[in-house]
Amino acid sequence: MKNVKYPLKLKFIFLIATLATFIISITSLTYLMRETTLVTENNDRSSRLLMMTLARTFTELIIQQVYDEIISFEKHLAESGDNIVEISVFNNKWQYVAHYNRTGKNKLGDYLDETVIEKYKNINETVKTGNSGTDFVEYATPISIYSTKFGFLTITFSLARFKSEQAQSIEWITITAVIAILASILFSVTLSNIITKDLKNLTMGIQKVADGELNYRLSINSNDEFGLLANQFNEMAQGLLEKKLMSRFVSESVTDMVKTGGELSAAPGEERLVSILFADIRNFTSISEKCLPEEVVSMLNDYFERMTNIIKNNGGVVDKFIGDAIMAVFYPDNELEHEIRAVTAAMQMTEELQNYNNLRSSKNQFTVNIGIGINTGRVVAGTVGAKSGRLDYTVIGDAVNVASRLEGVSKLGKYSKIVVSAETMKAAESVFDFEKMSVTEVKGKQSQLEIFEVIKLKELDRIAENLNSENEMTRLMSVKLLGLSKNAKYCEKIAPLLKDNLPQIRIEAQFAIKNLVKQGETIMKYLREILDIETDPKILATLIAEAGISGNDDDRRALIKFLDHENYRVQANTIEAISLMNDRSVILIILKNRLSDPNNRSRANAAIRYYQLGEPDGLKTLINMCRDTSRHLMRASGAYGIGEATSREYSRSVFENISRLGDRIIDEHRLKLIDEARVTLEQLLGDPDLMVRINAASALGRMGNPLSIEALVIKYKTLQAGDSLIPHIISALKHLTSSHIFKMIEKNFAAKS
User: Fold this and answer.
1) Which of 283, 262, 461, 452 is nearest to 373 (CA)?
2) Which of 257-271, 287-301, 565-579 has the lowest mean pLDDT?
3) Which of 151, 159, 107, 173 is nearest to 130 (CA)?
């Protein structure tokens, strides 16, 4: 997600703080000016009143020339306070008849200077004659009866007290303003936190949904626009989750058309030249009869996941799954011929199947083989189905039927078991070597067909030269093709592409090296350095998974640093990789420390593996996760984990670990814990979150305990037709009941589904 240069929180703080500072500053300045004006006016009024009072008092005394009383009075007046600096009384000849100066000499008997007389002689009322410096102010008034002047009075006042009071006022107002501004800043921070907290949660939710975590929900309970937005977000995420769940039952062609805004019901048939690939598992019926249903389903899910990824990486589209078979279509594009992409995908599928079988063999699990048929021809691509019912976007035509028949013939192959038509061979013979097969008749075809089996790649050195091409698609296809060469000498040339700028090329380079070298230590020679410099989380997670499988205990121990990686997929793969260590004591220590991991996926993975190693605390952790009332993701992962850890296929490994450690296989405490897990899952069938309910129902099916049938049926009865939980409850009931009992249940409630 793009970084925000100017977060909304800082904008809120700046805006509110600036506004508050402006208002407080203006208010404080206005108050200070008003206070200064009031004090000044009050001082002026008091001074004028004093001058008028003294003038009236001194009038009779100056007429009678009783100057001693005037001197005594003015001295008493001046010394009674500290704001009068000087008092002067003049007779009508401008002679000092009374004078008091707090700091200077007494001028009694002196005459006033002519320049000063000019200043005073025209004054007929009490006036402020101006400042005598910055710290003093002088007032003057005539001593008269009516218009006859008998003398003159001046008083100089000190402004020290006024300025002191003014300074105190400024200090008080400043302190108050600073406190108010700080309070406003604190308020703005608090308010912005309140506002942006919900916004931050909403942004994080949008990012998580964008990253594919569609089961993420917001817990904003405010009764405002944010609360309304959170509810709408949760409804949107729920809708996306349901659509995603349903999209897995729809072909990629349909979902691609929906994404691009296509109208399925109106999509006309279109004739196109394509390559069709059919892949089928050999002897699947006998495998299903010999193995437990959950083991078969688990294998199919892993198999389909691996094969689908290869088909997508080569620009193909999985059209449909037909039981254990895969039908894929390769449409023309501007990069590489669809015939070459189809054959490349087929070769990679056989290589990946070999790796998958090696992994299953190491776990004492059954292995499978496949045959692949590819045909190139013209088909009609379009929407088929009922307008008011189910629709499917697929390809139909004779070319599709031929591809299916070629897959059936592939069992007769001697090399790769990949059989192609002449049309496909002609387009791909510049890259692959083919051998014509003796089979000429294909079931369902009256005319004879030329069919060929893929042997190997050709002109490998020329392909290797393209590894340095500036064109990304050329480098990508070259890596894919060399990965199928079975020639380990090309590893050194492919290795630099593990650092390519294009993530897809780095993935393919890893895949190619894995195919070319079979020894784990040789693979790790290339992966060790890349693990420390890879930055793409998806690629890093893949590298870690491969290091866990191919590396030794030292390699797996070196992965511990990724346990705290910020990407949850990396964390989860690291836990799985480390759990493959041979040193059981080290594994248990690491896993135990992760049983309290804040991330639901990492905690669940650790708990699953911890329990599979025979430790009951792993299952306890999963049960406690299911009881986390504040986090639905934790409950969903806990429910999934219980299903994974207690499934019948993994129960064997748990009891094998117990037996190897010398404990009793029948452990009463462990059985009670498993039953507690079952009851917990049954309670989660009523959880408010859909993903939690789905995971709980699926987990109950995997546990295989018939005691859960009642809870599932009761929940089934409460559901409305079309509820997304219905297919998962039906699937669980299929695992828990016999076919006869399930048919009875299905008959009673079939209307809902």
Assistant:
1) 452
2) 257-271
3) 159
Q: What DSSP letter does each residue of 636-682 carry, written as one string?
A: HHHHHHHHHHSSHHHHHHHHHHHHHTT--SS-HHHHHHHHHHHHHHH
pTM over 0.70: no
The Cα–Cα gap between 74 and 54 comes to 9
Adjacent-strand bridge partners of 318: 328
The count of other CB atoms within 10 Å of the CB of residue 184 is: 18
Backbone phi, then psi, for 459, in 5-degree steps?
A: 50, 55
Q: Residue written as tokens 């594994």?
A: 587
Which amino acid is located at 270 in the chain? E
Q: What is the DSSP letter of 438?
A: S
The β-bridge partners of 419 are: 373, 453
Question: What's the pLDDT band for 367 if we cut at 50, 70, 90?
Answer: very high
Contacts of 318 (CB under 8 A, 6+ apart): 251, 252, 308, 311, 312, 326, 327, 328
Q: How far apart are CA 288 and CA 40, in angstroms?
A: 105
**What radius of gyration, in Å, describes the C-alpha atoms of the chain?**
47
**CA angle centred on 613, ends 607 and 619, rounded to 5°:** 35
What are the backbone angles phi and psi of residue 121, rounded to the nearest 5°? -65, -25
CA-wise closest residue to 451 among 492, 485, 417: 417
Residue with tokens 């691009």: 260
CB-based contact 153:147 (threshold 8 Å): no
Tokens of 203: 């942004």
In whole angstroms, what is the distance from residue 337 CA to residue 315 CA?
10
* Nearest residue to 457 via CA among 374, 547, 348, 566: 348
Dist. CA 69–CA 58, nearest whole Å: 9
- The answer to whether 601 touches 568, Cβ cutoff 8 Å, is yes
Alpha carbon distance 518, 508 (integer Å): 16
Count Cα neighbours of 327 within 13 Å in the Cβ-side half-sphere. 20
Structure tokens, 589: 């220590």
Are the CB atoms for 431 and 457 separated by under 8 Å? yes
The values of phi and psi at residue 212, to 5°, are 105, 0
Q: How far apart are CA 268 and CA 381, in angstroms?
A: 8
Q: Is 289 exposed, middle or buried (0-12, 13-18, 19+ CB in 10 A)?
A: exposed
Residue 322 and residue 158: Cα distance in Å, rounded? Answer: 108
Task: Say which residue the tokens 């999509």 belong to.
Answer: 267
pLDDT digits (tens, 9 = 90+) for 197-246: 777 777 777 777 776 666 667 766 666 666 777 777 777 777 776 666 55
